[in-house]
Automatic annotation (TrEMBL):
PANTHER family: BNIP - RELATED (PTHR12112), EG:152A3.5 PROTEIN (FBGN0003116_PN PROTEIN) (PTHR12112:SF39). InterPro entries: DHH_sf, FA58C, Galactose-bd-like_sf. GO terms for cellular component: cytoplasm. This is F5/8 type C domain-containing protein. GO terms for molecular function: exopolyphosphatase activity. Residues 185-226 form the F5/8 type C domain.
Amino acid sequence: MIALCRDQIDLKALKENTKIKLETVLVDHHNLSDEDMYLMDSVVKIIDHRPRDERWSWPGGEIHLESVGSCATLVARNLFDKHPHMIDSQISSPILIDTCNFAKEANRATIVDVEVTNALEKAGSLSLDRDKVFNEIVEAKSDISRLTTDDLLIRDLKVTSGIPIVGLPMLVKITRVVFQLVGQCIFPLGMEEGKIPDDAITASSSYETKSVGPQNARFTLLPTVK
Ligand SMILES: [Mn+2]
């Protein structure tokens, strides 16, 4: 199986190439970002499980919009219907992850997810031990031991309106002591009673310093400790 990322393909060049007709299938989304708007008239099919966005109607396109736990379920069903020889049972892996291994508490899986996964397992050689497969994937996904700092920064990177948002994994441990301090506000922690002085609180910009400057970022203002 070959995994290709979209930035490995020069879609713009393909679009501008007059000798070919670029056909694009949007999967797991049905809208285009500003930078992808040039693909607008190349979209021939939508396969998505998100709630319908009325601003994107895609007239003339083949639309498969259905609220299921995993978009991979819809992709697999589409392959069963149109290209059964291309079915690879590994496609059930993202379904396991998206539905949290069909856990009742997660309440993500629909009957369609279940049926398609059963069909995939029947069609392929994948281990039928779903718990084992699920645990192996979760373990592999959370293993960052071989990633460099650069890898970590781009690992879950999302770009929204040109703004990169890094999804950095971080282990947060809240001890009971800290929770008690915060939950019951037993002690002020520097901001409230002013141990942290005004000039130690900064902001990259303020509309008007006196009224909305960073020194106003205190929940409760008590007399400053000198
Ligand atoms: Mn999705």
